[in-house]
Structure formats: structure tokens, C-alpha cells
Design a protein that fits this description.
The chain is built from 16 helices and 17 strands. The protein has about 550 residues and is α+β, with helices and mostly antiparallel strands.
């Protein structure tokens, strides 16, 4: 027997029902929990179930104590489990996983994985990954149709094909979601395109640039002061040319120059100064005349102001600067082009979607055919196994239904069914009422499929209910076979089963008195090797 990559090392139980303070060391292979009825064997599996996320009842807290403490340590060399814990935020050290649960007498509880607080959901997820409960437990993994499908696929050796189908399905769903978004965008496209076109027309009509805005501001300043400047120009020209009876500066300069030329002997060579002054004043006059004769459109100021108002409005609308207006135009054109290309994208996605859908149906059909074929072989093997377990006439049937819609793993729905009494009909194994019969059917499933499974720890309860003799020996052999692929912890009352154990965990109950108060306390002791023979003889003596 090779060592499993994941197994339970020890369990600590404090103040839990009849247990005061016990620590149990589990071994590899088959661990048999034995002891008289009512000694507390089932409490050990109850404790494990609580550590794996089951709902707690405050009644389990031992009387006159404040809380129950349950703790378990697992040895783990399974890198998938280690990686999963790391991803969930519960990294483990030295290949050990610790789980702790505290249940208080008010009904509340706390849970921890690797010393970090966790939820019951976290515990349940951990349990489903690594541990299987077989017996009268809630939420047995083997009773899940999805898990039965996984085991059938593993048996049929089509897991790679199944995963390939799932990868294509994810791709198809991704394209489908994108297509729905594009269709929704298309429905709003015309309205959005109208909006974009309006905004672009408004911006394009203005054709904004920082330089244009600056020129408009300068022009506005000129136009606003036009009337005032015109009046000043006429005043300057009147002073230069003269008006009515007053003599202007230019005529006076001409007279002054003429007088200087006539009296050159008095003022020699100074007429140049008069000429220069006259030239400068003539330049000024020409400038004033140009201004006066400038064509003036009374509506031009209004147009400039209106254009500047448009600048201000668009700046408020698109971010506060001319650069923001220009960038908005770039963004609008890009979005407009994207929306106009929606039909092309949708057409391409529609083609790809149809191709993937055809591929998915073909893959699902192939998976379904292989499942149907493998289900007959697996059902025959399971029937043979349960009949070896002395369920005379019992038969297993695996129904593989093909559904219309594509599911996560194809188009198949799988039901493990069993007929425990000939002629009485087949029922889904989860609906089989007898705990003993159910346990034996699930044991048969485990015998065949444990080598295919990632589950490493198997907990069996009520496995020997209503059996004895040769049947018990056969059950013991089956448990021993399952233990070759993992760790098995099973409650049994029969020496025929216990004889196959690699380790015995004997549960005893003692009644003692504390003054006038009577108390009950359960304890365990572990038995290995040759000492187990003595315990087996004691068990034979009680049969």
C-alpha cells in the first residue's frame, strides 16, 4: 500500500458530549472504530463532520462547560489541495493542514483553517475536495448527480475530452455575452449617433483653435471701441488740417517753412526740421484717414461676440479649454466610427458563435455516446460488487439521459440507480432508505472508483448494519481494498470486519460519580499489531 497524498493524522475532542478531553491518532489504511453501542463511536464521526462544515447544535457542548473544542491535523502532499488553500487565503506550512472549530453553549461557533478564521462554507469546500462521508450523513458527495457524472467520465477515461468541451463552452459563452452587449449597443446606436453627429457639427462649425480665439478677442477689443476711436480720429484730423476759421498744424508748418526760406540768412538750413515734422504729421494723417475710410460693418461686432460666446459655451461643455473641445471632437469621431462598425463586429461574432455551437454539439454528442457505453460496463461491475456484498438479487443501473440544452459538461444527465429487491424497481441511490444497504452500495462504488478519484479520506458509518458472517467478511475485504487507495475510517461492531483493520480505535464509556452528580465520560485507546487479536477475541465473545 502506497502512502496517500492526503490523510488525517489526529483528532482532538474537548468538552464534546460525553468526551471530556481526548486525542486520537489515526493511521494509514483502514482505521476501525469499535466499541459497545452508545460508547461514543458515532460522536467521533460527528466531530469530524462538524470540522467539515456541518451545522452545530449547542447541545453537543458538554454540561457545565462553556464550549466544545474540535481540532484535526492533516498531512498533505497533494499540490492541488495546497494550491487551492493558498488561493483561498489559507496557506499551509510543512505540508500540514489544521482545522479547528469552537462551539459555544449559546449556539454560536468559530472556525479556523491553518489558524486563520474561516466560514463554514470554506470548511465545506475543503471537505468536498478531499473527504467523502459514507453513511447517514448530510450532503454525501457520492449522492450528487454532478459528482456521479464526474466519476463516470473518469471511469470512461474522457476527462481530457470533457475539459476540452468545457473550454470551448467558456469561449462560446464569452462571445455570446459580448454579442448581447453589442446588440444592446446597436439598439441605442441611432440615438447615440444622432447625439455624436450633433456635437461634431457644432464643434466643426466653430473649427476651434487657440489662435482663432485670441484673434477674435483682439478684434472684439477693436470693434467695441470703434465709435470712440472714430471721433478721436476726426478731432486729430481737424487739428492737423484746420477747421472753419482755425488754422491747422499742417498749413501753419507750410507757412513756417516758406517764411524760413525767404529769411534764410536769418535762420540758415533749418527748414529740414520743418520738412521732417511735416512728413511725420502726414503719416499720422494718412493713418487717420485710413481708419476713417475703413469699411465698417455694424453687424461684425455682433458676429464676433456670438462666435466668442460659442467658444465659452463649448469650453464649459467639454472641459474648460479650447484643447478640451478639440480632444472631444477626436473622441466623438472615434466612437462614431466604432458604432458604425458594430454591424461588422456582430456579423463576425455571429459566424464564430455558430461555428462554436456546431462544435459544442458535436463534442457533447461524442461525450454522451462514450458515457452511455461506459455506464453499461460500470453498472455491471457495480452489480457484481454489491452482490458480492451479499445483496442477493440487487442490481445497479446507470441512466444517462441526453438533454436538449448544453450543460457545463455536455448534454448528459447521469443517475446512479439501484434495485435492492428483485422486481421492486430501480430507485436513485440517494432515495434508498436503508442506511446499511446504501452504505454497501456506496462502498461498491468506492471499490471500483476510488482509484479514479481525488478523494483520499473515506468515512464509513452503518456499513455493517443488519449483516454478519460471510457478508461481514466480504465488507471487510471491500473496505480493505478501498484503503489501498486512501485512508478509511469505519465504525463497525463486527470482528469479521475489524480483522482487516490496520489500526483499531476502541471507544469506551465510563460512568462515575462527582458527589451526588452522576457523569458519563467516553475515552479512546489505540491498538496496533498483535494486540488487535485480543480485541478481536473480545468482540467475538460479545457476538
Amino acid at each position: 500500500m502506497s502512502a496517500p497524498t492526503f490523510y488525517l493524522k489526529d483528532l482532538t475532542i474537548q468538552n464534546f458530549a460525553t468526551f471530556k478531553n481526548q486525542s486520537i491518532q489515526f493511521g494509514l489504511g483502514l482505521n476501525a472504530l469499535i466499541g459497545e453501542t452508545g460508547s461514543g463511536k458515532s460522536l467521533i464521526l460527528d466531530a469530524l463532520q462538524l470540522l467539515l462544515g456541518a451545522r452545530a447544535d449547542k447541545k453537543v457542548v458538554r454540561r457545565e462547560t462553556d464550549y466544545s473544542l474540535l481540532a484535526a491535523t492533516f498531512e498533505c502532499h497533494d499540490q492541488n489541495v495546497i494550491a487551492w488553500l493558498e488561493a483561498e487565503g489559507f496557506p499551509c506550512e510543512n505540508n500540514e493542514i489544521t482545522i479547528k472549530r469552537m462551539i459555544y453553549k449559546n449556539g454560536s461557533s468559530k472556525a479556523y483553517i491553518n489558524h486563520l478564521s474561516c466560514s463554514l462554507h470554506n470548511l465545506g469546500s475543503f471537505a468536498r475536495k478531499c473527504i467523502d462521508l459514507v453513511g447517514q450523513f448530510e450532503n454525501q458527495k457520492l449522492l450528487s448527480e454532478g459528482y456521479q457524472l464526474y466519476l463516470l467520465d473518469h471511469f470512461a477515461k474522457i476527462l481530457d475530452e470533457r475539459n476540452n468541451y468545457n473550454a470551448v463552452l467558456n469561449q462560446y459563452n464569452e462571445i455570446k455575452n459580448k454579442k448581447e452587449i453589442l446588440i444592446e449597443q446597436k439598439q441605442m446606436r441611432e440615438q447615440r449617433l444622432d447625439y455624436l453627429e450633433f456635437q461634431l457639427q457644432e464643434i466643426d462649425k466653430l473649427a476651434p483653435t487657440p489662435e482663432d480665439e485670441e484673434l477674435l478677442l483682439q478684434k472684439k477689443a477693436i470693434l467695441v471701441n470703434y465709435e470712440k476711436h472714430l471721433k478721436l480720429a476726426y478731432q486729430f484730423m481737424s487739428l492737423l488740417d484746420g477747421e472753419d476759421e482755425s488754422q491747422g498744424i499742417l498749413p501753419a508748418l507750410r507757412q513756417l517753412r516758406s517764411l524760413m526760406l525767404k529769411n534764410n540768412e536769418f535762420i540758415q538750413n533749418k527748414e529740414i526740421l520743418i520738412t521732417q515734422s511735416e512728413d511725420h504729421l502726414m503719416d499720422l494723417k494718412n493713418h487717420l484717414e485710413q481708419y476713417v475710410n475703413l469699411e465698417h460693418d455694424p453687424e461684425e461686432l455682433e458676429k464676433v461676440i456670438e462666435r466668442l460666446d460659442t467658444y465659452q459655451r463649448l469650453k464649459r461643455k467639454f472641459g474648460g479649454t479650447v484643447d478640451h473641445i478639440m480632444q472631444s471632437a477626436v473622441d466623438f469621431r472615434r466612437e462614431k466610427q466604432s458604432l458604425q462598425e458594430l454591424d461588422i463586429d456582430l456579423s463576425e461574432m455571429e459566424i464564430k458563435s455558430k461555428e462554436l455551437l456546431i462544435d459544442l454539439h458535436a463534442k457533447a454528442k461524442s461525450l454522451h455516446k462514450k458515457r452511455v457505453k461506459a455506464s453499461l460496463d460500470l453498472a455491471n461491475k457495480l452489480t457484481e460488487r454489491i452482490q458480492r456484498l451479499r445483496m442477493t438479487g440487487a442490481e445497479v443501473q446507470i441512466t444517462v439521459e441526453e438533454v436538449d440544452e448544453l450543460q457545463e459538461w455536455g448534454k448528459s444527465r447521469v443517475y446512479f440507480k439501484a434495485q435492492t429487491n428483485p422486481g421492486e424497481g430501480f430507485y436513485r441511490i440517494k432515495d434508498i432508505a436503508s442506511g446499511g444497504e446504501l452504505s454497501r452500495i456506496l462502498l461498491a462504488v468506492r471499490q471500483i472508483l476510488s482509484a479514479y478519484d481525488s478523494i483520499s479520506i473515506f468515512l464509513f458509518d452503518e456499513i455493517d448494519t443488519g449483516v454478519g458472517g460471510e457478508t461481514a467478511i466480504t465488507i471487510g475485504e471491500a473496505l480493505n481494498e478501498v484503503a489501498l487507495h486512501g485512508q478509511v475510517i469505519a465504525i463497525t461492531h463486527l470482528p469479521q470486519i475489524a480483522q482487516f483493520a490496520d489500526k483499531m480505535i476502541i471507544v469506551q464509556k465510563e460512568i462515575y460519580h462527582e458527589g451526588e452528580i452522576t457523569r458519563t465520560e467516553s475515552s479512546v485507546r489505540e491498538v496496533l499489531g498483535k494486540l488487535m487479536k485480543k480485541e478481536l477475541q473480545a468482540m467475538h465473545g460479545h457476538i
